[in-house]
Design brief:
Elements: E1 6-9, E2 13-14, E3 20-22, E4 29-32, E5 35-37, E6 44-46, E7 49-53, H1 54-60, E8 64-68, E9 73-77, H2 79-98, H3 103-115, H4 119-124, H5 128-140, E10 151-162, E11 166-176, E12 182-194, E13 197-205, E14 208-217, E15 223-229, E16 240-244, E17 250-253, E18 270-275, E19 287-295
Parallel strand pairs: 16-19, 17-19
Antiparallel strand pairs: 1-9, 2-7, 3-4, 4-5, 6-7, 8-9, 10-11, 11-12, 12-13, 14-15, 14-18, 15-16, 18-19
């Protein structure tokens, strides 16, 4: 049986609610997933709707379009698009079956996914909650992560903590480029058991690693900010930073899952900080809210 999926449209244009329209300019712009689509015929407002050329939308979504003169119909064939979705779904299922079941094996497979820039491989090894957090990122990257240059040449994995409930690994990614220059970036991977499978539940960066040299308190004596400064060759992205303590900031003892309170932070403690994703004040030293603070000494 030949499987084909058709959408028959009996007009040459259609109003599409999923594409956003910009009315500020005299010419209406057609924007799909944040990217402006160029059309040979401009969208036209009519009867509280916007009529747009259907070909440019269909092709942008990966569908094929044709004109049937006998039935006076536009035919959109999304078979290939559906096949791609099925292919990804089956690939995820295969990875789940073939992926290592031991903790170190999972981290090695994930690190290899980072090295070869395979977003599907990385995604499949994540916990359901982390998948929700990361889905939009992978989609925006077209499931191809990282950059063509610099690229990951190699990686080293070190176990930092283990318990019955969680394992934490340090992954050193060694990057290089066409000039032969090399640099290292660290990430910390936490695994937990989900229904018999060890999956990645958290990924942290070492944005700044150093000693706490200053603490800033609010009027009601609540810790608002710490200043972290490295007294040796920088390990993190920055050698010093103003670290804001937010409502959702997590503080842990070492690489364990033992939580601490902001009041436990003292001058002289060595900490490792992972900043939240999002904007930061890029003065020097930078200032940003902490996602995770780990007291490592």
């Amino acid at each position: 049986m030949k499987l084909r999926k058709f959408i028959i449209i009996t007009a040459s244009v259609a109003a599409l609610s999923f594409a956003s329209m910009t009315f500020a300019d005299p010419v209406i712009k057609l924007v799909l997933n944040g990217k402006e689509l160029k059309t040979d015929v401009a969208p036209i407002p009519a009867d509280n709707r916007v009529m747009v050329p259907i070909r440019v939308i269909s092709e942008a979504l990966g569908a094929k379009i044709d004109w049937d003169a006998e039935t006076n119909s536009v035919i959109i064939d999304s078979t290939e698009l559906e096949a791609r979705k099925m292919q990804i779904s089956r690939l995820e299922e295969a990875i789940k079956i073939l992926a290592p079941q031991d903790q170190l094996g999972v981290v090695k497979t994930w690190a290899e996914g980072v090295k070869i820039r395979n977003g599907v491989l990385q995604y499949t090894l994540m916990s359901p909650e982390l998948q929700k957090q990361m889905y939009d990122y992978f989609v925006s990257m077209g499931w191809v992560t990282g950059t063509s240059s610099p690229w990951v040449e190699n990686y080293e994995i070190t176990e930092k903590y283990k318990s019955e409930k969680a394992y934490t690994y340090e992954v050193d990614f060694i990057y290089t480029d066409s000039t032969g220059a090399k640099f290292t970036e660290k990430q910390y991977i936490t695994l937990r058991n989900f229904d018999g499978r060890w999956l990645i539940s958290n990924i942290e960066n070492a944005d700044v690693v150093g000693k706490i040299t200053e603490l800033t308190f609010s009027k009601d004596n609540k810790l608002e900010k710490i200043f972290v400064e490295s007294d040796e060759a920088p390990i993190g992205t920055y050698d010093k930073a103003n670290v804001l303590i937010g409502e959702n900031t997590k503080i842990y003892k070492g690489y364990s899952d033992e939580e601490l309170k902001p009041s436990d932070l003292k001058k002289g403690m060595k900490v490792q900080v992972d900043f939240v994703d999002g904007p930061m004040i890029m003065i020097y030293p930078p200032q940003a809210e902490a996602n995770v603070i780990r007291v490592i000494e």
